[in-house]
Amino acid sequence: MSGCVRERSLGAQSKMSVIRHLENLLLEYEACKQSFNEALESQKKLGETNVFITPQKIQESIQDLYKLKHNGKKIKELYECQKKSRVKEYKYKEYIHDVTSQLDDSDIKTEHKTEQQATKEQKKNKYQQKQYKK
Q1: Host H or E run for residue 29
Q2: What is the pTM of this model?
Q3: Basic and acidic residues compositional bias: what residue ranges (predicted)?
């Protein structure tokens, strides 16, 4: 009887459909793992025990892609565009640091007043510019 109470206390996790789904996921995972292990074993039998992907191999593969007859130029163009975008993104990435924990309340109040004064001055300048244009 305590088993039933325990299952009810688990709520949605105690549903048999959820349990079956998780068991199926586990079986799929084990099948994939077995496939990878078999592939590794077949590589070992062929004498390819040290199969590593190195940066040089990656560069060679990229260069091979660039040499493709139909899409090589487009692949290179897209790669260069993506590379430039990453550099640009990194260059302009904004970092926000939490410094309020290091400030006391008086510093925060002073900072807030300074921000309010700057906002008032900006509004005043905009008003003066509008008046000047009239």
Answers
A1: helix 16-45
A2: 0.35
A3: 106-124
